Amino acid sequence: MSLQARIIEEQLVGRRDDDRVSVGRACVLRVSGRPPVHSALLDLTRHGCRIRTGHPLAVGESVLLGLAGVGTVEATVIWGEGTQYGCEFITALRSGAVSDATRGNVVSFDVAPVAQPFKWSPRQRLLTLAIYAATPWLAILAAVHLFRGH
After folding, report:
1. What is the 3-state secondary structure (H, E, C) of 70-121?
2. What is the pTM of this model?
3. What is the pLDDT of residue 99?
């Protein structure tokens, strides 16, 4: 085996030896010519990931993945089975990026979203304020009109 072949083999074997970290978090999949799609990031290494998405992808297709805690990463789809796809990153993630993607600062699929309190729009608030301000004056004008009429 040539020296070049051994170096390539060592690089590929090293990539597969990375521990895959189960993530189970949301990601955003962007494919050229299509709108962004919310998908699931199932597991992650510095060199690639496994995602689940309802949109079909072709092997060899270039994609952009928005990963919480990491940022946008360019990748190539290297395999697909049903709704799951394996993606290889064009450039390996920086050291610590896998840990950043798995920290508690990222919302998990298992956690229900926090309900936001109801908030009126500025236009609705202004209209309500105007009605509350005008109502006493209308009552005063009505009383004056009734007493003047007699």
Report:
1. CEEEEEEEEEEECCEEEEEECCCCCCCHHHHHHCCCCCECCCCCCCCCCCCC
2. 0.58
3. 79
